[in-house]
Amino acid sequence: AAMGAKLLGLCLAAALLAYYIYTPMPEDLEEPWKVMLISAAFRATGHVCEAADQLGLMHYMEALKVFTAIEYIAPTSDENVTVTDTEFSHVAVRLYLPRKPSDGLRRAVVYFHGGGWCVGQAGMKSYDLLTRWTSNRLNAVVVSVNYRLAPKYHFPVQFEDVYSVTKFFLQSSVLSQYGVDPARVCVAGDSAGGNLAAAVAQQLLEDSEVKTKLKAQALLYPALQTLDLNLPSYQENENKPILPRLFMVRLWSEYFTSDSSLREAMASNRHVPVESSHLFQFVNWSNLLPEELKKGHVYTSPTYGSSELAQKYPGFLDPRAAPLLASDAQLRGLPLTYVLTCGHDVLRDDGVMYAGRLRAVGVPVTHDHAKDTFHGVMMFVSSPASLAVGHRLLNRYIGWLDENL
């Protein structure tokens, strides 16, 4: 009987595990079993963090940081690149300097990692790979910024950290110290880092102290607006791998405050006060999305929320947090732009609308739409969860930089 009970227990555990791991996947995903395992690992992590938070042991995001810390690797130089951790303008950065000789001045990329303004770091294995490959393939100086994170620090700290690093680096004395061509500097980032890169590029246009102009910006599945968290992509991809809608809402709200009232308002998409209604023109998907992404969706006017939230946390209406809120006039001077969007991603429409708005004001844009993959896919380039599509997109991004920077 004991044997039977053990067997039954084992079967139940296996069934439970299978149920947990098996999630219906979009039909067009490559390597679906790998994606399923990645997705299950992310869900399990989320459940552990949620439990820690509910039990009052640890803030959800602090618990999540424990998991990302496992991915950390110390700065390690190799035969191609010298890697050091240092500070630019009192902000921690990881610096990648190519070792191979250069004919003339080098190109440079200032990179901002993703992680929803709450987690992640330049030293995570996946980011270290991405920035190291960029440096090696382009023979470029790469500055990867360890900006301060929520919940300990809220907007605008993250923005101010990446902005001050970029501004410091763009000084002619610093560029010449690293042998960088002032005409060939780019900002780049993925997800929340793409948000920061877009915001930095916009802010530099307004800043009379900065003489060096950016050559390019590269935005990898960026988050670009806080106004409408019910765009078609938010609806269609509500429960897709890595970044379900409610997790994105949690990250957005945490960027501004740990007060759960903002999160609740954002979750029901009732956080924008009526006096900010003029901003909706910048994120009105019925005008800004191509037909094939609108199908099956009907635009409804926003439901307005209390003015009190916006007065307490004005950040969510600030273009430095939501670059899509910049006016056309403010977008006009932006540099050459690369935007990557993924089909199965709540942030898909943010990137699509920004690419469209930039094109409309004459900014040269390359928009790569990877319709058969999900948010954050370029994180999965290091084993054991290495995805072929992650490698392909990483090569597309570095290839674009190589041609345009």
State the main characteristics.
405 residues, 8-stranded mixed beta sheet, Rossmann fold, alpha/beta, single chain, globular, 8 strands
Write a brief caption for the model.
By secondary structure, this protein is an alpha/beta fold. Helices cover 43% and strands 16% of the residues.
What name goes with the CATH superfamily? Answer: Alpha/Beta hydrolase fold, catalytic domain
Helix content: 40-55%
Radius of gyration: 21 Å
Shape label: globular
Mean pLDDT over the full residue set? 95
Return the CATH architecture. 3-Layer(aba) Sandwich
CATH topology: Rossmann fold
Helical run tally: 16
Keywords: Disulfide bond, Hydrolase, Signal
Signal peptide: 1-18
Organism: Oceanodroma tethys (Wedge-rumped storm-petrel)
Active site: 191, 345, 375
Could you please describe the fold and organization of this structure?
The chain has 405 residues and is of the alpha/beta class. It has one domain: Rossmann fold (3-Layer(aba) Sandwich), CATH 3.40.50.1820. The chain contains 16 helices and eight strands. It has an eight-stranded mixed sheet with strand order 1-2-4-3-5-6-7-8, sandwiched between helices. Helix 5 packs across helix 7. It is globular and about 75 Å long. The chain starts with a helix and ends with a helix. The mean pLDDT is 95. GO terms for molecular function: carboxylic ester hydrolase activity. Belongs to the 'GDXG' lipolytic enzyme family. This is AAAD deacetylase.
